């Protein structure tokens, strides 16, 4: 290409190039002005609150995630204490950020599996070989004789972000050293046998059964089910039998004494301890 051709090409193209440059600068200025004008000021307390949370988005607080909870609790300090994984430490930090005095310590809620039947204790109608989830197996009526017990396929294990629950010999078992009380396992159980219980002590006594069958029927398919005999109620008024099932009023629980007496009297040994240390009577 001759020099004259290059000069001619330049003369023809530079106005278009200059126009594009002017337009680009103009758009950039418009975007800059818009970002300044439309900028939403974020309350620094929201960011500080978010940083005080465990940032695992478990949903135990009732919000979509830690970010949503941080915004909500800054707007409404009455929501302090809703973060189970963060516990008292997170609540105290949030109260400090909001220049509030933290309320009295809240009792942490932890999951208790209301079943004590391992593989050898259960009666199965047939071996299940479908989709390996409790939800799928629970949709069938011919898998497990007890329709109130742990199915052992691990839906609760799959949703736990803390490796705090495992299937041990066919039974969901909580590792309380790792458990944060996030409620995910309780929400995942299709039979609702995992209950969030206020742990007023490191270990809590409980009735590890949910069967509403008669005592005769329960004994026919499970070696460790509640038969509704009422012997526990004769030892301790904190126990009551309703719909063939013994239940414990956790608000009345105190370690030892008449509670241990009720535990010893249980003929099927389904009154047990659950917690970081699980003493056996």
3D structure, described in words:
With 281 residues, the protein is α+β, with helices and mostly antiparallel strands. The chain folds into two domains: 44-97, 3-methyladenine DNA Glycosylase II, Chain A, domain 3, CATH 1.10.15; 109-275, Alpha-Beta Plaits, CATH 3.30.70. It is 36% helix and 13% strand. The chain is elongated, with a radius of gyration of 30 Å.
Can you describe this structure in just a few lines?
By secondary structure, the chain is α+β, with helices and mostly antiparallel strands.
Instruction: Please tell me the overall pLDDT.
Output: 85
Q: Identify the overall geometry.
A: elongated
CATH arch. level architecture of the largest domain: 2-Layer Sandwich
Total count of strands: 8
SSE order and pairing:
Blueprint: H1 3-37, H2 44-52, H3 66-75, H4 87-97, E1 109-113, H5 134-138, H6 155-159, E2 165-168, E3 171-174, H7 184-188, E4 194-198, E5 203-207, H8 215-221, H9 231-235, E6 239-242, E7 245-248, H10 258-265, E8 271-275
Antiparallel strand pairs: 1-4, 2-3, 5-8, 6-7
Index terms:
281 residues; 3-methyladenine DNA Glycosylase II, Chain A, domain 3; Alpha-Beta Plaits; two-stranded antiparallel ribbon; two-stranded antiparallel sheet; 10 helices; 36% helix; elongated
């Amino acid at each position: 290409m001759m020099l004259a051709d290059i000069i001619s090409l330049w003369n023809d193209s530079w106005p278009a190039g200059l126009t594009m440059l002017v337009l680009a600068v103009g758009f950039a200025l418009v975007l800059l002005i818009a970002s300044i004008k439309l900028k939403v000021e974020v309350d620094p307390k929201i960011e500080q609150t978010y940083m005080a949370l465990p940032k695992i988005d478990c949903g135990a607080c009732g919000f979509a995630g830690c970010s949503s909870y941080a915004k909500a609790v800054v707007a409404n300090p009455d929501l302090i204490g809703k973060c189970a994984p963060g516990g008292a430490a997170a609540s105290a930090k949030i109260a400090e950020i909001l220049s509030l005095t933290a309320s009295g310590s809240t009792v942490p809620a932890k999951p208790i599996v209301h079943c004590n039947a391992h593989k050898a204790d259960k009666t199965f109608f047939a071996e299940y070989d479908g989709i390996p989830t409790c939800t799928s197996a629970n949709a069938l009526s011919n898998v497990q004789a007890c329709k109130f017990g742990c199915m052992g396929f691990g839906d609760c294990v799959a949703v736990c972000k803390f490796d705090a629950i495992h299937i041990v010999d066919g039974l969901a078992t909580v590792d309380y050293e790792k458990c944060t009380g996030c409620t995910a396992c309780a929400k995942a159980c299709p039979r609702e046998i995992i209950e969030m219980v206020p742990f007023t002590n490191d270990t809590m006594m409980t009735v590890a059964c949910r069967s509403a069958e008669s005592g005769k029927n329960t004994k026919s398919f499970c070696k460790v089910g509640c038969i509704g005999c009422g012997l526990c109620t004769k030892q301790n008024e904190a126990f009551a039998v309703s719909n063939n099932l013994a239940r414990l009023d956790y608000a009345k629980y105190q370690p030892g004494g008449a509670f241990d007496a009720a535990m010893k009297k249980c003929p099927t040994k389904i009154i047990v301890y659950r917690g970081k240390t699980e003493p056996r009577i």
